[in-house]
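Subject: Sanity check before I submit

Could someone independently write out the C-alpha cells for this chain? I want to compare against mine line by line before I put it in a report. The sequence has 219 residues.
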Amino acid sequence: MPEITALTAQRRRRNRVNVFLDGEYAFSLQDTLAATLHSGQELDAQEIAALRQQDAIEDAYDRVLNYLTYRPRSTWEVRRYLQKRDLGEEAQTMVLERLTRAGLVNDREFAQFWVENRTAHRPRGRRALRAELRQKGIATEVVESAVSDVDEDAAALAVAEARVRRLAHLDRPSFYQRMYGYLQRRGFSYDVCRRITDRLWKQVAEEHTDPEGDLADSS
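---
Independent answer below. Compare away.
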C-alpha cells in the first residue's frame, strides 16, 4: 500500500496540506483532515477515496458559508450552487443537512427575509412575491405563510408615490393607464391598483386646481 512520506502546508492556501505518497505528490486536504494523518502511515485505495470525498465535502461547506455571507439562501439555491461545483448527490445532501442542522439554511426564515427585504427596499404585491419565492424553490405552503401579512395597500402606495411626480403632468386617462400598469407589473392586484391610482389622481388633481376650482393648464 502507498505510504505517506510527507505532509507539507501549501504556500498560497495555508489551510491546505499537500500529501505525498511514496515520495510523490498525490493530493491535497484541508488541514483539519490532514491532522489525522502522519508520515509513515499506509493508505489503501478505499481510504484515499474516503479522504478525498470528505475533503470535497469540507471544501464545499466552506464555500457555501462564503456564499451565505451575501444574503440568506433557499435550499434550492444552495443545492444549485453545489451542483455547479460538480459535487455528487450524496455529498450535496450531506452538506445541506449539515447547514440545516446549524440553522444556516431554513426555507421559512428565507421566505420571511425575502418578503421583509422586498417590503423595505423594493415593494411588491403578493402575486409578484409568490412568483419570486417559487423561483427560489420555496414550497407553496411556506410561500403563502410568508406573504399572508403583506400590506399591499401600503406597499403599492410606497411604490406609487415614488413614481407619481413623473406622471403628474398627464391627463386623467393617461395617468390612470401609466400608474395602473406600473403597479400591476409589480404584482399588485386589480383592486389595490385601482384604489391607489384613484387616491393619487385625487391628490394630483387637488394640487393642480386653481383658486376658481378649475384644473390648471398642464400644457
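---
OP: Matches mine. For the report I'm noting this point. Residues 1-43 form one domain.
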